[in-house]
Amino acid sequence: MSKSNKPELATQNDPSFSDSDEGEIFHDARYPAEEEADLLNKSNTHKSAANELFSSARYSEAITTYDRALSFCPNYLDYEIAVLRSNISACHLKLEDWKGAVDAATASIERLDKALSEQTQQETSSGVKKPGNGKDAGDEVVELLDGDGDEESEEAQLKKLREDDVRKEDIKRIWAKALMRRARAKKELGGWANLQGAEEDYKALLGMGNLPAQDEKFVRKALRELPDLINVAREKEVGEMMGKLKDLGNGILKPFGLSTDNFKFVKDDKSGGYSMSFEK
């Protein structure tokens, strides 16, 4: 690819440009339409090959091939990148690489958040108003703006509205997959923070209200199991922390002929606080 065909970073030489803007500039830069289509085609070719490798249980090779697909995909195509990241997360789950699965799923969710934000901005600027939540579905009216009664203009806006709805559903579908994969990986990783994170993800999934029956059953089962797992992990980690603090305290008190055993802590059930007494 020649230098002249690289996406234009129009604001980089602007006096107001700062280092903090660099990431957004590279994200917002656009390839010419023809070159974008060519890059996306190459990315999809590698994606299809990776899908075949995944189906053949060749998960490590699939990850490498999904990475190749990412290398061709323009950085501003958030939805397409999110799909690839979510697929990589699925590969890590199969390999029982729980941390890799969490990282890839999180990267997918972050991209989907951007894609949804951009989708909302496009709807706002397109001149199409959707009905508020106060109306019943049967009474919904789509208000078309700036068309001046032109049938072709109205048809184009309706087509765009339908496409936007399809894209939103696609985003929600991949978001649910990525969230499910991250929740499972966090649960497998264990530990207080990870288990709490898994619980939050599963609650978010349940809040969607449109999970397939099998997925909803799995999520509800996980949410029944997690509170006890979280309590056990919390008690274990707090106990380990207190043990380390005790060792540290003993090291400090030893020159004075004292130890932490000389200090007794009693919990006040009403306030949740502790009182301390000294015993020789």
UniProtKB/TrEMBL annotation:
Superkingdom of the source species: Eukaryota
Polar residues composition-biased segments: 1-18, 117-127
The keyword Transit peptide appears for this protein: no
TPR repeat start-end pairs: 43-76
Residue span of region Disordered: 1-25, 116-140
Gene3D superfamilies associated with the record: Tetratricopeptide repeat domain (1.25.40.10)
InterPro entries documented for this protein: TPR-like_helical_dom_sf, TPR_domain_protein, TPR_rpt
Alphabetized UniProt keyword annotations: TPR repeat
Listed PANTHER family: TETRATRICOPEPTIDE REPEAT PROTEIN 1
Entry protein name: Uncharacterized protein
